[in-house]
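Supplementary Note 3. Input sequence used for the single-chain structure prediction.
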Amino acid sequence: MRTFTRLLLFLSFFLFVSPASFSKNFSPYGGTIVLSTTSDPKSFNDIIAKETSTTAVTSLIFEGLTTVNAFNLKVEPNLAKSWTISEDGLTWTFYLRKDVLWNDGVPFSADDVVFTFNSLIYNDEIPSSSRDIFTIDGKKFDIKKIDDGTVQFILPVKFAPFLRSMGQSILPKHKLEEVVKNKKFNFTWGIDTNPYEIVGTGPFQLVAYKPGERLVFKSNPYYWKKSAQGQKLPFLEKIVYLIVQNPETALLKFIDGELDYYALSGKDFPLLKPQEKKNNFTIFETGPSFGTNFIVFNQNLGVNEKTQKPFVEEKKLKWFTNVSFRQAVSHAIDRKKIIEILNNGLGFEQYSPISQADGFWYNPDVKTYGYDLDRARRILKEAGFEDRNKDGIIEDSDGSPVEFNLYTNSGAIERIQIAGIIIHDLEKLGMKVNFKILEFNALVSKLTSTFDWDAILLGLTGGGADPHFGQNVWISSGQLHMWYPRQKEPATHWERRIDEIFSEAVKELNEETRKKLYDEFQMIVSEQVPLIYTVLTSNIFAVRNKFGNLKPTNYGGPFHNIEEIYIK
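The predicted structure, written as discrete structure tokens, is reproduced below.
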């Protein structure tokens, strides 16, 4: 409660900050902000993006019809200046801004909106996670152009988070129509693309990419948005992302002045806090992060078409699909120890698929798993797992020793340290865990393409402001239904119920009724533990005291208004 109170006070201050006004002798234009990212982007194609290494880049280039206010989380106009809705709640008409150009100077129009949905998102040959969000009970939206500045969406049923979903990035028809017709879209705008070929309406455009080193963006000369005083935006001339895979290296670069921003872990706080005045930066703490961190076991029942072998070895599949096995593992995670040792007490235990930061949607009554190795042993023994030959390794009921590989991504030092603590306790239970570290994009490929893995320690960014936007993770047919994606039919009764909940909740316009449905969803996940949650960090970041119009929030971070930020 203390943290949330501090957050509310913090937000109320920024809500009433007046827009920047400049003296006659000062120009806000120009300058560079230097940030860092932990890995190279996997692509520059926003439609097929599934990882933050890509979306961190594309979010600067592309925009949606609407946007979410980072202070109050309300939906606001963006590429659409306004909209109307029919009495039955099924027909939405959007009136587009007339002053928007793509960054190559071509006018933005309704054709681009229709193309993005009908030719990209709803194209079955394109692996878009957004398709899960914009499909209700197997039915698509009917999207059509009324005129160049007007587009209409006809929904099959009422869709509660519709306006929020219109933050979906819009891509240019004039640049991509031919590659779609030639069935080459999935390989378009890859990391080998000439940056000037990547066209968006956002405040910045990519101008250079050197793998393993940096990405460089410059201001979009055609950007449509203006400041409160009518000035052309953005103010900054360049954004540079240094690719720094090791957080410790990023910290040193921040201390040395090479970076303008650093996202702190709790262990960094005692080191950086005393340096604020000396090194001219400010540390902001805005509450629990929106993301989630978890261990996931591979429950994929499928068979590799090339090898005709199961994705998961039969004995391991029996372990991983056993809810008692997963619950025992959850009881073996010492979350308090992780928070104290790795986060200096600046963290939160996590058991729900929705972060405490989400406020209204969060269910505080989910099933929890306190650290209790004795209870974990009892659960395992009741499920047929025990050390029968006294060699220190437990065996299943068929006599097979429990041994599996646990993967995480390189460069994520805190995640690697968390894995070390968890593995130590799993070994106390008699499990043999082989820890393997992979480059992030290689890990994502295992998770979403090859499916050749046992267990993964990973996280999701969250922060979609509505539970429905996690549908691609939670519905059984979802592209990111990690433990067993793209199911033709739900593999379990509880997955079927989650499918039903998301189908019902998306059509329910009464917010309290929706809340009850999503509470049930969180309860099911906490009981079945398909994702075994660990801890949430506090949202802490340090920013150089060189920027004007900086208005950090828990939802948007420090640079949600990047187009308005200038160098003082």
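The radius of gyration is 24 Å. The longest strand covers residues 535-544.
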